Amino acid sequence: MAIPPGFVYIGHRLPQLLAGPLTAYFLIVLLGREISTTLTITSVLLSGPLLFTILLTYDDIKNYIAACSSGAQLPPHIRDYSLGGIWTIYKDIQAEKSGYIADGIEETVEYCGGYVFNVRLLFQNRMITLEPEHLKTILASGFEKFEKGLEFREVFNSLLGSGVFAADGDLWKFHRSMTRPFFTKDRISDFDNFEHHAEDAICQLKLRLREGYPVDIQDMAARFTLDSATEFLFGNDVRSLASRIPYPASSARASPFLSDSEESIELDPAARFAKAFSEAQTVSLSRARLGLHWPLAEFWTDRIVAPMRVVHDMIDPIVAEAIERKHANAEKKAGHEGNTLLEELVNSTEDPILLRDEIMSLLVAGRDTTASTLTFVVYMLSEYPEVLRRLREEVLSKVGPNKRPTYDDIREMKYLRAVINETLRLYPVVPFNVRMSKQATTWPPVKPGGKPFYIPANTRVAYSVMAMQRRKDLWGPDALEFDPDRFLDNRLQKYLTRNPFIFLPFNAGPRICLGQQFAYNEASFFLIRFLQNFSSITLAMDAQPPESHAPKHWASEEGRKGKEKVKRQAHLTIYMQGGLWVRMDEADESKS
Ligand code: HEM
Ligand SMILES: *[C@@H]1O[C@H](CO)[C@@H](O)[C@H](O)[C@H]1NC(C)=O
Ligand SMILES: CC(=O)N[C@H]1CO[C@H](CO)[C@@H](O)[C@@H]1O
């Protein structure tokens, strides 16, 4: 039996929790016996909160003095007078259930007079910034002053272990150098993998559409990227495209992949794996909200254990087999170069846990990200038929109606890349991110002649590329419009070229996404094949579960919110609530 997480949490904090009451008690004993029992109990009880408040105030004063003496300022607090920021946490949870991600940011910006603020949650400062200059400091020029940090590792440890995604310092360098060789140009331009999975996916879509039902693009994209990623990582894919795709929940044939019908999920290992993998990510994200305090929400049972068991059951045998194969090959010839990432990794270590962690990191980093990008691109194509028309025109003129796209084709397709970029600008896959400051530092001033911002050591720092990439002052008055041409016409020079840090869907600096080129290739390849086969896309709102419809009152709102048809949610990555259901027409080959 594992020790319940809540016990471990309290065990670690016991000395801290008892410090106040014990001090108070001994002081009273030392002072003599004139004090009544009620007073003793009250002072012992109050001593904890009192000590805590004193320490907190001391910290605030210390930071204030440190900021002033270096000619800097502290980021302003947001408006929230509730104890421990409970109000903000409550609003955050409500917003996730029913709201629009990053709603209410304008209000905060207005109140704080800028895009930098301190959201103090559970008595801990979180410095939030939406300033490109600050992101440059965090991710690139001041890289060594920030890390993912203990909190990130504690929260994501069960999911990611020590892999490249969660590690810091020398361990991160080790992991990064171990995985990096696998992302060279010739590795990532091998399209055989994408080809047969895309073919499978399109074939399934066609069959279902011919039956007269709409299809869920998000589910399809998740299968395509899971199969491609597992093949890329360990040579044999998990074949999630082989099992039946879902019917709309409203149809008589419904037996959805991710929600009900536990029975079919039990029978289908790929579906079980995919479900467990999403569940583990969802648990990790709910932990991220509470940070180090996550065990309070899972006091008696660790909710990630069950889904992770399913995930490990799938990966462990694959890892074991790779190690065995290496030994078998070693007898035949030395210095065998691996074909898959796992074979490559086995050459640097045979530690099965380390190998599994690395694989998990890469699966988490590489799977839902590209799936989400594809889903949101298709969402935009369904909403902007003119963009769809131009994109198909580019596909047909550059690649033709049948040919398999090559690396060079993809490189030359400017409009396709602009469509992907514009989607990643408005709907960046990783909408929020966090870092921890290792030492006290400053962020540059925002206004000319203004003061820099002081960031104390060991402070949580959060940023939202989504909110930043929607700022009108950075992207122009039409920032909330979906318009791929902004990456091609004079707006490119006017905004992005002058200030590259306003567009960071893949982050920047030494920890920039390792899979960026892989992802552009994978997404481009799929979209080209997809558009060779389908000529029109319309949302099937009748198949979309009712709770996923954008609420009626959104329609009167300005900006993107007013245009949204389907609600979004986020765990590590953003996704469409309830899938993205569409109807499509097959391309008429004789015409094209
Ligand atoms: C459109 C798709 C993708 C997007 C938007 C994306 C975005 C990101 C972002 C924002 C990070 C930084 C996370 C952080 O440091 O906090 C990241 C890291 C990473 N990504 Fe991607 N990613 C995508 C696809 C992929 C793919 C397909 C792979 C691999 C096959 C991949 C592998 C990685 C790895 C290994 C890291 C960790 C790098 C490190 O910490 O040194 N990504 N990605
Ligand atoms: C899309 O964004 C990437 C990454 O910032 C950039 O390298 C590329 O030039 C952009 N392409 C287009 C056509 O916008
Ligand atoms: C599944 C399917 O029909 N795929 C087709 C998509 O389009 C290409 C080009 O026309 C065909 O080669 C595929 O067979």
Automatic annotation (TrEMBL):
The keyword Transmembrane applies. Its cofactor is heme. InterPro entries: Cyt_P450, Cyt_P450_CS, Cyt_P450_E_CYP52_fungi, Cyt_P450_E_grp-I, Cyt_P450_sf. Pfam families: p450 (PF00067). The chain crosses the membrane at residues 14-32, 39-58. Heme binds at residue 513. CDD domains: CYP52 (cd11063). One of its GO terms (molecular function) is monooxygenase activity. Keywords: Heme, Iron, Membrane, Metal-binding, Monooxygenase, Oxidoreductase, Transmembrane, Transmembrane helix. Belongs to the cytochrome P450 family. This is Cytochrome P450 monooxygenase pc-3.
